[in-house]
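Figure S7 source data.
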Amino acid sequence: MGRVQKDGVQEEVRDLRQQLERHNWRYYALNDPEISDTEYDLMLRRLHDLEDEHPDLVTPDSPTQRVGEAPLPGFESVRHTQPMLSLDNAFDEKELLDWEERIYSLLEMEPRKPLEYMVQPKYDGVAVELIYLNGVFTQGITRGDGEVGDDITQNLRTVKSIPLRLYEGGGPAPERVELRGEVYVEKEAFDGLNARRVSSGMDPFANPRNMTAGALKQLDPKLAAERPLSFAVHGRGFISDLGFRQEREFVRVVRSWGLRPAHYSEVHRSIPAVYEYVQRLQDLRETLPYETDGVVVKLNDLEKQQKAGARSKSPRWAIAFKFPSKQATTRLLNIQVQVGRTGVLTPVAELEPVELAGVTIRSATLHNYDELSRLEVRIGDTVLIERAGDVIPKVVKVITAKRTGKEAVFDLPTHCPVCGEKTVRAEGDPFIRCPNFSCPAQLQGRVRHFVGRGAMDIEGFGTKLIEQLVNRSLIHDLADLYRLEFEQICELERMGAKSARNLLKGLDRSKQAPQARFLYGLGIRHVGEHVAEVLSTEFRSLESLGQADLTSLENVHEVGPIVAKEVFDFFRDEQNLALLKKFQEVGIHLTAPDAKPESASSDSPLAGKSFVFTGSLTAFGRDEAGVLVKERGGKVTGSVSKNTSYVVSGSKSGSKLEKARSLGVPVLSEDEFLTLVRSAVDE
Ligand code: IVH
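C-alpha cells for the predicted 2-(butylsulfanyl)adenosine complex:
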C-alpha cells in the first residue's frame, strides 16, 4: 500500500476514535447525545472495518477493544494505593445532626459557620477502583477487603460507561488518576436479563447486586460483556496533580473526563436541607432506574475532609443515611402448601400482617423444602422477612432468641394437600412433588399457564373461573377448554351470557395463535417463550418436532441437552400424545402454515435477515412488528448475537441495545425500521 493511502487511513482511524470518545462523553457524562445510536453504530462499525483491514493500527484503548482477551485462570491480587473505606450509618435526622456536631469539634470551627455538604444516592452495587495512567484505562480492581482487591480489568473494560481513555476535551488528564465508583445494573435491564434466563430454562438472579457481583467475577470477559452493567463515579483514590478543591468540582472534572458522576449530586448548606434531599430521594426511590439504599453525605470541601480525617475503617467526613430497610420481623402463623402446574409443592408462610417499605405483607415464600430445612423454621416462630425489588417477600431467617418452646415443627407433606396422592421426592431434588398428573391443582395451574400471556393469551380466564371449571369436572385436560359450551359457562358463578360469549370467542380465536405460543402453552419443562419460538422456527410443525430424535433436537442452536431431553420425552408420553390428538380434533392446527408467505420475494431487503426488537415501540406492538418482518421473509429472534442483522430499538431499550453496540450490529430506530419495511412493500 502506498504511503499516502496509509496515512489517510491512519488519519481516519484517529479521527473516528476521537469522535467516538466525544460522543461517549456526550452520552454518558452529559446525558445529552448529539447523534443517534445508529449514527454512532455506523461510526463504530467503520472503525471496526478499518482495524480489521489494518490490524497494525489497533490500539488497546480503541473503542472497539472492549471484549476480546482470553479467559483468565484466576484473578491477581492488587493492593490499593489508598485503602477503600466503608461508611458509618445514620438512620434519622438526629443522627445526622450528631455527626455534624462531631465535625464541628474536629474542625475546631468557632464561631460556627455553615458547612457545605455534597449529597448523592448510595448505590446498591459493587464498589470498584479504576486506574488511568496518562489517560488510558490500565487497571480495575474490586474493593476486596479494602486493602487488597482482585484485578478485574478485563471485565470492567466491557462496561460501556467506563471509557477506555479519559476524554481530554478540557486538556490532558493527570498522569495517574484513581477513580472509585459503583458498578450496578439498571432495574429494567435486570428484569430483561432475568426474563431471558427464565425463558431459556435458567434460574433467575436473586437481585441486581448479585447479578453485578457475578458478572465481575467471570473469568471470561465475554460472559461479563453479556451483562448490561453501568458505572457511576462517587469517589477517588490517589490523583496526581489534583486540579480541584471541592467535591462539587470533582463532579465536574469527572464529567469532563467522560465518566458519569453519581446522579443527583447536589450541595446543601445545612443538615435540615440535607434531610429534605434525603426525603425527596426516598420518595423517588422506587421510580429510580437503579437500586439505592440511602444517601451518602460528604463534606464538600476537600481540605476540611483532610482535617476531619478517618478512623481505621471509615472516614469521619462522610456518612451514609440509610433508608428504612426492606426487612421486617413478624410472626409466622402457619405454613400452607401450594401445588403448582408441574406438581411442585411450594411452602408458603402465612404471616402476621406487617408493614414493609410501605406495603402490608401477609405471606412470604419459603421456596422449597431445602430452604425450609436450612431455615429450620417452625410454626409460631418470629422471622425476618425481606422484600427485594418488586419480588415476592421471602423469609430470610428465624430469630431463634425469640423462641418460647411452644413453636410447632412443620412436617413435610407425605400426601398432596389437594388430591391426596402420595408425594414423591427424587434424590437431590429440593422439591417435593405430587405425581398425579390429573391433580386438580396441577390442572388449574396448567390452564392458567395455557391461557396466559405469552401463551394462548385468552382474556377472561380468572383464577376463580378456572377453579370452578376444574372442580365441577367441566374440564379434565387443556383440550377440554375447546369443548366448553355456552350453557355450561353461563351456569358458573359470576358469569353472564356476555362474558360466556366473549370467553368462547377468545377460545375460538386462539385456535389461530402462532404455533410457538401453543407450544409454550403446553408447559413442557424448560420450554420458555424463547425456546418455543426457536423450536417452532426450526421444525415448522409440531408433528415434525414430535418426530425429531434427541440428536437433532440437541443440534438446534440455543437448545441444550436438558431441554432436548424434556421435549423428546414429552412427545413419547402416551398421555401427552392423546392430548395432542384431542387438540387436533377440537381444531388446533399442529401443522404450520406454508413456510414462506407469498409476498416475500427473495430479493426483499428483509429476506433472510434476522431482527431483534428492544424497548417499547409506539406505532405497533412487538407481535405486529414481528408479523411485518416475517411476511417479508425475515425472522425475529429474542437475543442479540453477531448473526443478528438489525436491532430495532424503541424507547427505554436497555441491555440489548448495549449488546448490539458492542457487537457492531446495526441499530434502527422505529422510523428507520418502518422505512425499511415500506421499501420491501414497494418492490
Ligand atoms: S463515597 C470512604 N458515595 O458505599 C467511602 N460511596 O459503605 C466514601 N457507595 O463501598 C464513599 N454509593 O462503594 C460514596 N454515592 C456514593 C456511594 C458510595 C455507594 C458505596 C461505596 C462504599 C460503600 C460505603
